[in-house]
């Protein structure tokens, strides 16, 4: 793995700040790359009503920051839903893809299914619907000349563990669907799955990596306050030749009433300190992973 400078930071880490202020804080941390949060209930940095004016505003603010965008972390609704407004979903997806292309990001990231572990119909049918919806989304992404990635394992969602994630990947393989996988080390750990074994198994599927600490059952710990061995994780990624993004994504809250409440100055200082400490701990783990073992 090349260098600590390859670490980036998601704007979700500063979910309690307006986008322009979040970008200022991230740039001050010394990173050059971000993920842009566009997740209702988690991060309001991209307006849900994404009209032309909103796309222009977000694009202008990112350009002014000088930061490079790796991906847009978005959501267009529950992909395993049995009833939904297909036209509205397609329009929202198109606008997210337009934004992704406009800011020069590589990919739009979508989640794999609704919040909650239980199927809406049954497991196989839900997986089939997610596969079908992602197939449509991938075709639209190609039209915009960007990639589509999916966070196929997310502890809070239908695809909560490796079994369902692998079943979705098998569906991709069955029709040659080219969709990259976002590996969130915290969600894998929270699900009780073996992180290094998951990295080894997914190998070239992995297009992007989110970094946050966790323990079994809890995916939201600060770096160094959970059970993830980041040195070992970086070594495992190095073993598969991974060369993609490594992004600190450390929200304070998610899918709660105050998840996107604006922070006061004291809270802002706390967010800054936590993010700085987390990045430093990740850099130390990355350097340690590059040392020869006896």
TrEMBL record:
Keywords: Carbohydrate metabolism, Isomerase
GO molecular function (one): isomerase activity
Keyword Ion transport: no
Keyword NADP: no
Gene3D superfamilies: Divalent-metal-dependent TIM barrel enzymes
Pfam (any one): AP_endonuc_2
Domain Xylose isomerase-like TIM barrel: 25-259
InterPro entries per the UniProt record, alphabetical: IolE/XylAMocC-like, Xyl_isomerase-like_sf, Xyl_isomerase-like_TIM-brl
Name of the molecule in the record: Sugar phosphate isomerase/epimerase
